[in-house]
Amino acid sequence: MTIPGGFGEYISFTRVAMFTHLLTTGATLIGGLVSAMLYGITTLQTYVYYMHYSEDDSTTKFIVAIVWVMDTLHVSFTCHMLYYYLITNYGALMSLEYIVWSFSASLVVNSIVITIVQLFFAHKIYHLSRRKLRWLVTAPIIVLVLAQFGFSMATAVVTLVNDTVTYATQARARAPQFQERSVS
Fold first, then answer.
1. If we measure between CA atoms, which residue out of 67, 34, 66, 20 comes closest to residue 165?
2. Are 124 and 105 in contact (CB under 8 A)?
3. Could you report the per-residue pLDDT of 29-78, keeping only the tens digit for each?
4. Distance between CA atoms of 21 and 13, rounded to whole angstroms?
5. Considering the chain, what percentage of its residues have pLDDT values greater than 90?
6. How far apart, in Å, do the first and last CA atoms of the chain sit?
7. 148 exposure class (CB count in 10 Å sphere: 0-12, 13-18, 19+)
8. b/e per residue, 155-167, with b = 16+ CB within 10 A?
């Protein structure tokens, strides 16, 4: 028995695909808009930093500049990804099967920014800690930051090389925790 006009055996693939497409692109658009708003805040903070903290050392100024430039690249790649899926391929449901190059580039840039910021904080924690505890506190932080960077780079490379979504879903389906178990 099925629900008339609802979820059942008579529901068409295109109706499900269109519903999934609307959910996916809506979430992507909202994420891109939030990212652009946060980029505006980052730009304002960068401007205020250079206007009010001109006495900071050149290394800190360089790190702030690099983070801002990388954030600019990240927002640019996100805008390209949104334009590709929402404007260029509007209504082309099969375009969701292809991962555009700017997605992988955005992952790489975002991972670099995260690593720079976390290593900067680890550096500050090192200098604020007592001498006997410095390496005991900061070594695990540095190891975890570098592990996260390695995993994120591996993810970016896999998505760049295997640029179809079906590869990811097939790998997930082959994993033992996602296979259906027979009830005996």
1. 20
2. no
3. 898 899 999 999 999 999 999 999 989 999 999 999 999 999 999 999 99
4. 12
5. 48
6. 25
7. middle
8. ebeebeeeeeeee
SS3 per residue for 94-144: HHHHECCHHHHHHHHHHHHHHHHHHHHHHHHHHHHCCCCCHHHHHHHHHHH
Residue 136's contacts (CB-CB under 8 Å, 6 or more residues apart) are none
CA distance 4 to 165: 32
DSSP string of the chain?
---TTSSSTT--HHHHHHHHHHHHHHHHHHHHHHHHHHHHHHHHHHHHHHHH-TTS-HHHHHHHHHHHHHHHHHHHHHHHHHHIIIIITTT-GGGGGB--HHHHHHHHHHHHHHHHHHHHHHHHHHHHS-TTTHHHHHHHHHHHHHHHHHHHHHHHHHHHHS-BHHHHHHHHHHSGGGS-----
Two tokens, residue 180: 């259906």
Q: What is the pLDDT of residue 37?
A: 95
